[in-house]
Write a structure and sequence with these properties.
about 140 residues; alpha+beta; HIT family, subunit A; binds guanosine-5'-monophosphate; binds zinc ion; HIT-like_sf; HIT-like; methyltransferase activity; methyltransferase
């Protein structure tokens, strides 16, 4: 049995401001929001990484995200939404239970695009790009 903050929220042992719930997914407000309305969407079952999710749970999670994005945007009168997953510790995942972030964005909020999460861009040759595309394709 893993000791996990989000499992405790799913089980009702920790309070949360729940905004959506069904059999397989739960969505609630982030406790330390990046913007008003910052919402997290989690599978109820404990899985650490996206690749650990069974197909049906992954599909359910995307469906919930798809519904929540416009709902969150309207609720806080935002101009746009950034959707993101920190998938793995090296990407900044702090809670090891899959969660999608729905972050409302406002004109002039200074937040930048997802591209801002990276520092220097790699200088990749055409050959290297071909190799990477082939490697991804083989494993897709
Ligand atoms: P990560 O860095 O793992 O992608 O994001 C984890 C998120 O969970 C953070 O944005 C953080 O504010 C949020 N969070 C951490 N603990 C709690 C909690 O107990 N309740 C809620 N609602 N959010 C939490
Ligand atoms: Zn968990």
């Amino acid at each position: 049995m893993v000791d996990c903050i989000f499992c405790r929220i799913v089980d009702g042992d920790l309070p949360s401001r729940t905004v959506y719930e069904d059999d397989s997914a739960l969505a609630f407000l982030d406790a330390n929001p990046l913007a008003p309305g910052h919402t997290l969407v989690v599978p109820k079952a404990h899985h650490e990484r996206l690749d650990d999710l069974p197909d049906d749970l992954a599909a359910d999670l995307l469906a919930v995200l798809y519904d929540l994005v416009p709902a969150v945007e309207r609720a806080v009168d935002a101009d746009a939404i950034t959707v993101g997953f920190n998938d793995g510790a090296a990407a900044g995942q702090e809670v090891p239970h899959v969660h999608g972030h729905v972050v409302p964005r406002f004109e002039g909020d200074g937040g930048g695009p997802i591209h801002a999460a990276m520092g220097r861009r790699p200088d990749l040759s055409e050959e290297k790009l071909d190799d990477i595309a082939a490697a991804i394709g083989e494993r897709g």
